[in-house]
Amino acid sequence: MSEVRKFTKRLSKPGTAAELRQSVSEAVRSSFVLEKTKVVEPLDYENVILQRKVQIYSDPLRDLLIFPIEDVSISVIGRQRRTVQSTVPEDALKKAQSLFVKECIKTYSSDWHVVNYKYEEYSGDFRMLPCKSFRPDKIPSHVFEIDEDFEKDEDSSSLCSQKGGVIKQGWLHRANVNSTITVTMKVFKRRYFYLSQLTDGSYILNSYKDEKISKESKGCIFLDACNDVVQCPKMRRYAFELKTIDKYSHYLAAETEQEMEEWLVTLRKIIQSNTESLVQEKKDAVESVQDDESSTQGKSENILESLERSMHPELMKYGRETDQLNKLSRNDGRQNLFSFDPEVQRLDFSGIEPDVKPFEEKCSRRFVVCCQDFSLNLLAQLSDRSEGGPTNVEPFFLSLALFDLKNNCKISADFHVDLNPPSVRDMLLDNSASGAEGTKGRSPGDSLVHGVPESCLRYIKRGVFSVTDPHVEIFLVARVEKVLQGSITHCAEPYMKNSDPGKTAQKVHKVAKQVCSRLGQYRMPFGWAARPVFKDSQGTLDAEGKFSPLYKQDSSKLSNEDMLKLLAEYKKPEKTKLQVIPAQLNIVIKDIPLDFTNCVTASYIPIKPFEKSCEDIAVEVEELVPEVAKYCYPFTVYKNHLYVYPLHLKYENQKVFAKARNIAVCVEFRDSDEADARPLKCIYGKPGGHLLTTNAYAAVLHHNQSPEFYDEIKIELPIHLHQKHHLLFTFYHVSCEINTKATSKKQDTVETQVGYAWVPLLKDGRIVTLERHLPVSSNLPPGYLGLGDTESRKQPSMDAKWVDGAKPLFKIRIHLDSTIYTQDMHLHKFFQYCQLVQAGAKEVPGELVKYLKCLHAMEIQVMIQFLPVILMQLFRVLTNVTQEDEVAVNCTMVLLHIVSKCHEEGLDHYLRSFIKYVFRAEKPSGTQAKMTHEILVLSMATILKQSADFLAINKLLKYSWFFFEALAKSMAMYLLEENKIKLPRGQRFPDSYQHALHSLLLAIIPHVTIRYNEIPEESRNVNFSLANFLKRCLTFMDRGFVFNLINDYISGFSPKDPKLLVEYKFEFLQTICNHEHYIPLNLPMTFSKPKLQRVQDFFSFAVERFTSVDVNLEYSLTDEYCRHHFLVGMLLREASVALQDNYDIRYTAISVLKNLLIKHAFDNRYQHKVRHILLAFKQNALELYEKTYVRSLDFACPEPLRNLRVLLAKRLFNRIKQHRYSSGLGLKLISCITIL
């Protein structure tokens, strides 16, 4: 049994050493009275710089003493566009009349304004430095026995503890040797042998009864004692002898000749390596003895000393050169001491904010749909030209869209495709009926659309779709239409049942030619097909998937809701009763390649890169993103589209018209209700016609008096909308009769008007997009928009004839996809009132406050989409406040509400992008108005001083970074744009602003030092944000004033504060001390000595004063030192108090000191200019680190162990400084002492 140590005997029970050390530590600390550090007023920094200006500027090392002149600047960064030209129309700002629209256009067309800090890379901790070579590429690892994991069983035969593991294993026969048996009578026993390497590099051969090594070893042979291995066939077949140094032998035998050869080769290699290592050891021993003898012969002087006494000049020159070369060679490969610090080695970047990027269009999962061919089973040769093959006998038209079965909605606009060959398209050229412009078949003019020939955009076959939330239940649906002819069943029957395809094809083609010439502009539904898009929720395309069969369209299931039900039925093919039309639909889905070119937006604006050849153009299909905050993003481009969806017409009970069965709906967009008003050319046309037309028709259902519709009409809205803009719906009865014997006059009567409906686009000045139910009038009187409400319809004076008693017969739905118009009532009214005030209207007291309060009810998705526009307008209102403080406070409260909502949705990165790139402090309009930073500081202080609204206070504390960043940027732009940066710092800002900053600081202090337990997250956030702001103020303002603010804030803490508050304090100090010009801020010059000793004297003085200890183990710094060198004096003074506290607080203080030393050790701005000073600085840093570390060992430890730890630490640091230990080994041993 091992002897028990005396120290262990004194314990009440084993294992309580840590508890005893902790109790002793508490007893030691309780014997000291922690006094609050004395408040030392900092010096007037600006005055000192002014008084010593000549001395500083004439100093060769003045870079260490002064701030750079061009430290802050403003840069204008051009907005990066993905399109060839801007999405904003050239005359958009002139046409716009609404304030909201104007601000949106300005936002999308303006460049970014960024405040640049020249040395910002040096304003964080060491991880943010531009020098990235913190760690050497290869650091030799030091392995100690204590670091290795050994098993409790220390038996040398245990294979688990062997260094090299098992080298060879197998069955052998071993001779049982004893003194009573002769060699020829040896008994061999079969054993399983393991040849292994031990931790010290030696080899051992263990034998066991079988392969299981868990049992006890039956014997072992140490190969270090063997000097040869030879065969001995006379003793036994395949036998060999292992000879040892003491002339003893081990006899073994293998079972086959091959196994014997393998064992012999392996054993000979091991014995040879052992012999070579033994010879080398003897040689080294002889050389060391010779060196010892030579060192004792009085050669104590080195070569350089002997050469210095020589009178020969060549030898003296040689000696000096040799000494210089030795110095250089000693520095080769030498690493910075701090490279071996664990935190530097780890380089954890988790706590660093990522780079802030400007706003950009949200990139969803994108893929391209390539439409290649569509053919049915009735084919014929329609062209006389030999190169044309068999084609469809009549034209068919496709529209593709994405449907989300999981969320039960349509998630993309329609992509219209015309895959008809030229011979089939020619069937529509004879259409002479009066219809929509661009749909009659005549060849439209080849004008340019955004620089692209219109002819290149007529027949686009590639569509780029995007999906924000990909999953397996998203389907691509293809609807097929044909020219109106009759019922769907009648038109599909020839394709489904035909015994003679050739004869049937000619018959169908003959009828189709007549139909196309008469009804070519009207469409009817024919069929549909679908296919899945994604394999999984990660967005992997199902590229190998194929479309379903072409199903016949059911005339009673046309709506999008019905389509979603059909998709659910399509997923269960065993239960489906859908009728199939034989057809081949060749549509390919592919990922967008990296070199994807010739693509245009949904507004036909070319996207980079775009080739001039304009071949095979692709068009982006608009995604209908769900109105959910997590899918929203701030708008960055101009877009102004309106999607109109006619849904249902109930005409079964009307008695006005004799015939109203084959009902076609014509949609127009007008800006007047006068009799001679014309529709606007702003509706996107179908393939083959003009890109923009004046009207659009929905598909017609044959003989249906209550038709449903599924069509999507896309409209390009004008920039300015007024009360007269409206949608006009005209209903026609289309005659489908084809009578070749009829007169031409009767043939011309294709359509008969059977009603009108209209809907104004604006209601109370904003676009309303809810589902609408509209009455239908049999006529269209002038001024019909006055009949919009129910009361107006009852007035007899109006010459309007309502169908079915003005009941709401027509159902429509409108979807707005615009980045310049909002549907939110509260946002619209706020901008409307601001526009009235700007126009000169008299402000009503309290009216603006009312609209500001209403903004709290704004929808979160609207808030995010128009985030830059809203925030800039709020800051503009804040700046132009003239007399009402309530307006400024409520404006700040709205800002706070928006900021908190963005954080709750995890979209705070948009706020950072806004502050860095978009926010600009505009000049106030009034002469007495204050700048943004002046008003904002007052409002923040007012909110924090309120005692009732704790919710707002807590939000302001939690998200204070946004307001402090806005203050900093406003201050910077004010100095640079007003050219006040050239003024003395004391004259840059008015006294009122300094007083407001001081009031804000005093308002924050109690929320940190008193309410920290109640609101830990909020208090930590405001502590860090305030530190960053004050750090920026050191660049802008009077540095002596900022020093006083820092002093006042730190004075709010106490030595008896709990651990959390101490962490706040040191986090605050570390942030401040990370200023990019920390050394000039500390004035590294002596104030009492005649000579300016710069950094070396400064740090040595700091170390000397810091390590002077009185009998109470207190560290003290002179008041004069702390006053002259304010930041470092405050940091060291607070660290000296922290070293008398518990382990966690000591660790926090020393970590701040160490990180600051690491940062300056790697700061490449000073490494080449003042290398000799930095060498001394690093030596002083090591001494400071040593003494603070050694002093920290004095606590929480009983007397005997404490003395041992301190002694070991001091000797260790001496050896590091004497280069007897490497830095890595030294730091490794330091950690071992800490564990001790």
Quick recap:
This is Dedicator of cytokinesis 11. This protein is of the alpha+beta class and 1236 residues long.
The secondary structure category is alpha+beta
**Major β-sheet, in short?**
7 strands, antiparallel
What's the average pLDDT? 80
Using only C-alpha atoms, the radius of gyration works out to 44 Å
Strands ordered across the widest β-sheet: 6-5-4-3-9-8-7
Query: Spans with pLDDT under 50 lasting ≥5 residues?
Result: 149-163, 295-301, 432-444, 742-747, 1089-1099, 1101-1116, 1170-1182, 1192-1202, 1216-1236
Helix content: 25-40%
Total number of strands: 38
Relative strand content:
15-25%
Number of helical segments with 4 or more residues: 37
General form:
flat
Give the termini separation.
24 Å
Q: What are the main properties of this structure?
A:
disordered C terminus; flat; Dedicator of cytokinesis 11; seven-stranded antiparallel β-sheet; alpha+beta; 1236 residues
Task: Write structural notes for this entry.
The protein is an alpha+beta fold and 1236 residues long. The protein is built from 37 helices and 38 strands. The strands form ten sheets. A seven-stranded antiparallel beta sheet has the order 6-5-4-3-9-8-7, with helices on one face. Strands 13, 14, 15, 19, 20, 21 and 22 form a seven-stranded antiparallel beta sheet that branches. A hairpin with a 4-residue loop joins strand 13 and strand 14. Helix 20 (867-879) packs antiparallel against helix 21 (885-904), helix 27 (1016-1036) packs parallel to helix 29 and helix 34 runs antiparallel to helix 35. The longest helix is centred in the N-terminal third of the chain and has 39 residues, at 257-295. The C terminus is likely disordered.
